Amino acid sequence: MMNEEALTGGNSHSVVRVGDTVRRPTGMWTPAVHRFLTTLRDAGIVEVPELLGLDEHGREVLAFLPGEVGNYPIPAWMWSPTILQEAGALLRRVHDASVPIAHLPAHWQLPTHHPVEVVCLNDVAPYNMVFQAGHLTGLIDFDTASPGPRIWDFAYLAYRLVPLGEYADDHSPRADARTDRLEALIRAYGHPFEPEAVLRVAAERLDDLAEFTDRRAADTGRTEFIGHAALYRRDRDFLRGLVSEGH
């Protein structure tokens, strides 16, 4: 039996590395996620983990994606225009490849959002991205995927990577760069999203995420989730303020 190394950065499940594989607990949503991953790999998207089956403990086994995960606080180099462009383009490829399965019956962990256009990752953010040599090379953690509109996923990516929230650390882009970075991300994705619509949906997404995080706090007893939910609601109010001001 090979040694198991706990992987940091996640906050929902116990995820371990065993050799060149990652082992994750399964749930009722796992068959849908596995079909999603297989569909993406079959479409030539090698930036997502390869599914290798289940181990003797019933955990899913995925190929390990080497590189650095974008955990917070995000280093300055992860805010580069190159990564912004690569993230938008990769999300578009994932969405396009998911279209054939978006309307198929399946049990997902999170609710479906309408109108259904693609399968959304629902948590596409630096902490679920893998980087090598200053480039985005992988996406991880697909357990919260579910069908929805393209903008639902895109707006959350914009919230995390532009970024759109009120909070900023010493390395994140200045607030006056927000408009240009959002427009660059829209161009990279290649769909004519209106910036105001992105802000509006991002606020809705954060409202949804705050409620989900409250439930997780109640279910797990982890008090740090209460703080996360409060942050999401502050940023939700901040984004709604930007929309009302016409930004």
TrEMBL record:
Residues of the signal peptide: none
Pfam families named among the record's database cross-references: APH (PF01636)
Keyword flag Transmembrane: no
A GO molecular-function annotation: transferase activity
Keywords: Transferase
Taxonomic lineage: Bacteria, Bacillati, Actinomycetota, Actinomycetes, Micrococcales
Domain called Aminoglycoside phosphotransferase: residue spans: 102-162
Gene3D superfamilies: 3.90.1200.10
Protein name: Aminoglycoside phosphotransferase family protein
Domain of life: Bacteria
